[in-house]
Design a protein that fits this description.
By secondary structure, the protein is an alpha+beta fold. The chain has a single domain (3-83, 90-170), classed as Gcn5-related N-acetyltransferase (GNAT) (Aminopeptidase, 3-Layer(aba) Sandwich). A hairpin with a 2-residue loop joins strand 2 (44-50) and strand 3. 24% of the residues lie in helices and 38% in strands.
Length: 177
């Protein structure tokens, strides 16, 4: 049976961080850049262990969004992955159950950018595809990011959302979403 544990980045030892990075490199078929890795750090990690081995991971990091003229405290889900030989057994759902608990306890909105393969997974969990426009609040002001549209999912919590409006995330290096 798998054991779910939650810890802040500051509480993870170097060996665990190395195991998380290796898991995500594998889960994303080597498409996990250093910037993507950096995006998973600084928040809460959901770690799924089985027989002393890390088999699943997800992270919830705090981000600031702008929507309908107000700042929204968002929990952004990053680095969700399950070891290839353990997929299809509910492990991804176990990781997301805990991530969603963290979101409900501390944020106005949950958000994530889903890979094409994961769209159905998140939709089945009640995440909603953002139908409006997406932007980033960057060094030059608010910049629209049409390439991100169709892949951003939200989990409405207490934030009042206008689903035909714009959702702007805070700027960061690498992919904004």
């Amino acid at each position: 049976m798998a054991d779910v544990r939650t810890a802040h980045t500051a509480d993870l030892d170097p060996a665990t961080l190395k195991a998380v990075r290796a898991l995500l490199d594998d889960a994303f078929d080597g498409d996990m850049s250093d910037e993507d890795w950096d995006h998973t750090l600084g928040g809460a990690h959901v770690l799924l262990w089985e027989d002393g081995e890390l088999i699943g991971h997800g992270a919830v990091v705090r981000r600031q969004f702008l929507h309908a003229g107000r700042a929204v405290r968002a929990g952004y889900v990053e680095g969700v992955g399950v070891r290839a030989d353990k997929r299809g057994r509910g492990h991804g759902s176990a990781v997301m159950d805990e991530a969603e608990r963290l979101l409900r306890g501390g944020f106005e909105l949950g958000a994530l950018s889903a890979s094409d393969d994961a769209v159905g997974f998140y939709a089945a969990r009640g995440w909603r595809l953002w139908p409006g426009t997406t932007s980033v609040v960057g060094p030059r002001g608010i910049e629209r990011l049409p390439d991100e549209e169709g892949g951003v999912f939200v989990l409405p919590l207490s934030a009042e959302l206008t689903f035909d409006g714009d959702l702007a995330c805070d700027w960061r290096s690498g992919d904004a979403w």
